[in-house]
Amino acid sequence: MNTQPIGVSPALSPEPAQERHTLSVLVDNEPGVLARVIGLFSGRGYNIDSLTVSETEHARGLSRITIVTTGTPMVIDQIKNQLARLVPVHRVADLTADKRDAIERELALVKVEGRGESRVEALRLAQAFDARTVDATLESFVFEITGATTDIERFVALMATVGLVEVSRTGIAAISRGKDAT
User: Fold this and answer.
1) What's residue 78's pLDDT?
2) Adjacency order of strands within the sheet including 48-57
3) Do domains 16-94 and 103-175 have the same CATH topology?
4) Do residues 162 and 121 touch, judged by C-beta distance below 8 A?
5) With pLDDT > 70 as the criterion, what percentage of the chain qualifies?
């Protein structure tokens, strides 16, 4: 039975909007857990935009996996439900949907080459973005910058105009505000 409203062609129906979500997944810190989580995404054709993993509670043997992904609301719900069913997963929190006003940060190392005026401009831009110089030679710099993803992207785009060589990014680390754990 066709549930499409009269006069509306299925081809003209609007697609649900893609949304970016940051998921915080608390898991046992044991071999194979990350592979199982990643397998869930790859096996269903979901994309991971950013992935950060680290042990967070050594005494309890727990790690936090922070995943940034994009999908329709239905796909995001599917991802959360499937993650929650994995055996080593203790908790799945959607820092975007929960409206917890999460804090997200990323770290990047940015290598820039330059001599003369481009060298001076690279230093000016780094200072404007509060980037630290972690290595310097007569021909290049390596800057360390921490901040929101949009700030990192703006910094990298500006450095491209003065001699960007290479960028290494950590992915997003996120945590909710307030006293409750995510």
Assistant:
1) 94
2) 48-57, 62-71, 19-28, 89-94
3) yes
4) yes
5) 90
How high is the mean pLDDT of the chain?
A: 90
The stretch 125-137 carries a mean pLDDT of 97
Instruction: Determine if residue 7 is left, alpha or beta; phi over 0 gives left, psi from -120 to 50 gives alpha, anything else beta.
Output: left
Confidence of residue 100 (pLDDT cuts 50, 70, 90): low
Helix (H) or strand (E) holding 128: helix 117-128
Asked if the 103-175 domain carries CATH number 3.40.640.10, the reply is: no
Token pair in block for residue 164 = 């960007």
Residue ranges per domain, the chain? 16-94, 103-175
Contact (Cβ atoms closer than 8 angstroms) between residue 112 and residue 163: yes
Q: What is the pTM of this model?
A: 0.81
Neighbours of 128 (CB within 10 A): 10
**Cβ proximity of 102 and 149 under 8 Å:** no
Angstrom CA distances, 57 to 25, 29, 150, 181, 182, stand at 13, 9, 29, 12, 13
Cβ pair 140, 112 in contact under 8 A: yes
The fold of the 16-94 domain, in CATH, is Alpha-Beta Plaits (3.30.70)
User: How far, in Å, CA of 15 to CA of 24, rounded?
Assistant: 27
What is the rounded radius of gyration, in angstroms, for the C-alpha atoms of the chain? 21
**How high is the pLDDT of residue 99?**
60
